[in-house]
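Incident review: delayed structure delivery

Summary: a single-chain prediction request sat in the queue longer than the usual turnaround. Root cause was a stuck worker, restarted by the on-call engineer. No data loss occurred. The affected request and its eventual output are reproduced below so the record is complete for anyone auditing the incident later.

Affected input:
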Amino acid sequence: MLRTPDSVRAREDFRHRDRGGAGAPGGPGPGGRFGRRGWTGPSTGRTGDRVLRATTKTAAVGVSAMVAAIGVFLAWRAVPALQRNEANFLTSHEWSTTDVAHLAFGIADLLALTVMVSVFALALAMPVSFGIAVFVTRYAPRRLAGPVAYVVDLLAAVPSVVYGLWGLLVLAPALEPVATWLNSTLGWLPLFAAGSGSVAGGGTVFTAGIVLALMIVPVITGVTREVFLQTPREHVEAALALGATRWEVVRTAVLPFGRSGFIGASMLGLGRALGETMALYMVLQTTSAAFGWSLFDSGASIASKIALGYAEFNNELQAGAYIAAGLVLFALTFVVGAGARMIAARGNGGRR
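Output delivered after worker restart:
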């Protein structure tokens, strides 16, 4: 990081303003401060302030209560099925819910495929999103940056069923030569070994992960772009004044400021990938073979398995088995979201 008296002073000024220091330009003014519980300054007593405070408080409490209610509902509906489960729910590879008197279901394969396809998608999406964000914010001319950002944002508006159709009918045949080459050349690695799916057919984790990557790129790119745009201008100008190239500006000023935002955005993208249903439902081929941690395995994620079992939802015990799987997915996405929140808070020095 380039450090000059001007850049250090600029950083301290920025921190002072960002903390809302009394009297700081852009700050909240005397009599108030931002703490761990947010703005703690005195209210103006105006009707608008009181209404806004009540509205925002109601929204925050309502959303929290709704999330808690969803968790309670899932647990309440899952317990009867779990009590009748004749297999280990967490370690079993079996999923047999046809006979209600002998339920035997486990999420080992479902959870493994969910995690693997999501992590694979994240590994592909992160560098692409980072490159797009850097290009749009630091390299592209203004006339080009706007359209590029708009097109990337539009990808988030495409329905997941369209991504699924595209992945099944267009991407999978196009990827066949690449998949075959990876399997024949690097098949000695477990990651690229022949799995339960057809390498040429395309209904594998490999194809599904690429489709998922394309779906989460707009999420990661959008947040990262906004974070990078917030880099203090004084930091950038100080680096440029010392003769830094554009990449050196990115490396010494933009990245240190926006790293936590980029990681937090990636965690949001991971949460999006974990819960994706329709695209995986359409791309992945179903199989009864055990998951082998290969990119050329088939199967179902937790979300797509729930979609596949829709016909059994008229029975409470059968539905309870799928709800139990959904409860695990709910907890997993909650942990990922909490992790993203912690990373973002740590990057901001612990302040909200």
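Verification: Residues 108-312+332-348 form a domain with the MetI-like fold fold (CATH 1.10.3720.10).
Action items: add queue-age alerting; document worker restart procedure.
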